[in-house]
Write a structure and sequence with these properties.
Blueprint lengths: L6 E6 L2 H12 L2 E2 L7 E5 L5 E6 L19 E4 L5 H11 L13 E5 L5 E5 L2
Parallel strand pairs: 1-4, 5-7
Antiparallel strand pairs: 2-3, 3-4, 6-7
Length: about 120
């Protein structure tokens, strides 16, 4: 029997703030029981993207491994212009590391607390 993935949880210093960033990025709804220690966004088929408070949180370093990234989310943007989506995400608070290994097909960005994620066309 295959397992069903029901949640992906990211460590962070402020769960509600990081949930707000990803809510703007994905359009997912905030779980009604979200609070300052754990916030969640509800996706399709019951999948939750969770954000849990971690005291003394240290942002991952990418592409280096001084502080391993431990998780890397990838989002497909469909037929939208990669540059326009990148610009919109940067307005929301995303960062853009100098190291970009995917050329014109994808961009590596970081969320407001340093977790790397990719956006790709197609």
């Amino acid at each position: 029997m295959p397992l069903q993935l029901v949640a992906i949880t990211l460590d962070c210093p402020d769960p509600l703030a990081l949930a707000a960033f990803y809510q703007r990025v994905t359009g997912l709804e905030l779980h009604p029981r979200s609070d300052a220690d754990f916030a969640g966004l509800e996706g399709e088929h019951g999948l939750v993207i969770g954000f849990q408070r971690v005291d003394d949180y240290q942002a991952p370093s990418w592409p280096g491994q001084d502080q391993p990234q431990q998780l890397h989310l990838c989002f497909r943007i469909g037929d939208e212009d990669l540059g326009e989506v990148e610009a919109r995400l940067r307005e929301f608070g995303a960062g853009k590391p100098d190291h970009q290994p995917h050329g014109d097909r994808a961009r590596v960005l970081t969320d407001p607390v340093g977790h790397p994620f990719c956006i790709s066309v197609g």
